[in-house]
Design goal:
Number of strands: 7
CATH architecture: 3-Layer(aba) Sandwich
Distance between the termini: 32 Å
CATH superfamily: Gcn5-related N-acetyltransferase (GNAT)
Number of helices: 4
Structural class: alpha+beta
Radius of gyration: 16 Å
Oligomer: single chain
Amino acid sequence: MTKDDIIIKSPEKKDFLKMCRVLNEAEKVYKDIDPYYEKFTTKDLLEMNSKKNILIIEINKKILGLGIWSIKNKKICWISILHIKPNNQKTGLGSKLIKEIEKRAIKNECKLIMLEIFPKANWAKNFYLKNDYKILPKKEYNKKIFKNILSLKAKTTVMIKIIKKREKK
């Protein structure tokens, strides 16, 4: 796999069944963590596509992962889903995908990127920490910028990254 083999792009309608398979394969680990776990359907993804942004990462026309996000309060990029097929994890694909989402968030003039993980999902926490995300303390949830986004009742861990537009030298 070379850098040139990796393509990150918006999906086409024909990609949604493959995306659904990748997502459900990657999500299997959550069955034991989330009591409300349900498999995703292509209908779910098509509905998300109408409201959110989706990128897929592929090599040799095989979809190996996807990221889904939206812009909240015009300042926050909220990542709903970021998954790489289990057999392709720890290859740098997840980091490439999240960097592309970050670039797009900067273009949208977002100030922060946020997401939720389950507290028991240590693999996810470690991935985001490796990519310079921090755990947001619950005492910060009441800040004005997070109004209508975060709830103190949430049982998840919120991770955050402050992003800045890269200045030209």
